[in-house]
Design goal:
This protein is mainly alpha-helical. It has five helices and no strands. The N and C termini lie far apart (34 Å).
Amino acid sequence: MFIPAVPGVKLELANSIGLILLALYGPAEFVAIGLLRVLLSGTFSGFGTSFMLSLSGFLVSSAIVLISYVFNKLSIYGLSLLSAVTHGVGQVVVIALMYENVLMLNYLIVMMISGIITGLLIAALAKIVILRLKMFKEEECNYEVN
């Protein structure tokens, strides 16, 4: 079976680490490790367009996730969906600004659909890891895992 690649669409397994950090340690660690991950990625791949897109996606999604985390206490699935969708939205908006072309915003639908799919997959993965780690850790999660 042939599955064609869609530009900009990735599984983003590293986002599961962010969700795990947020659940077990809190917002400060979530932001610190996420920002370090983006900077480290930029160090290896260069601080060009891909870095700008990665940084913009991280900043937008992290801001939305932290606001939702503080005020709504969403489940891991809600936070993961918000993170994945807003990450893609942030990237598309930045690329539209960089190319000064509003038609680039047409790609939002692709990024939002892929964000929903990958957000659910990442939440399921993070939930499994959190539940396994809770067996070894005495503290509780900072949000609802179900």
